[in-house]
Structure prediction request, 69 residues.
Amino acid sequence: MTEHVYKIIEMTGSSKTSIEQAVQNAITRMHKTIRDLRWFEVTNTRGYVENGKVAYWQVTLKVGFGLEE
Prediction:
């Protein structure tokens, strides 16, 4: 088994639809500029309220990616 070393960064995604979509929006955007994404961990979930209703979700992620040789 190969030993792995990862760089970890933190990002926040948002969505008017759901927590899951907020996560997917963050991952999709990071995938455009960061190679070798491997895993994520949700570290914070919050929502924004307008007129007594949830207007959108915000989810903060720690994301690990492999380092190039």
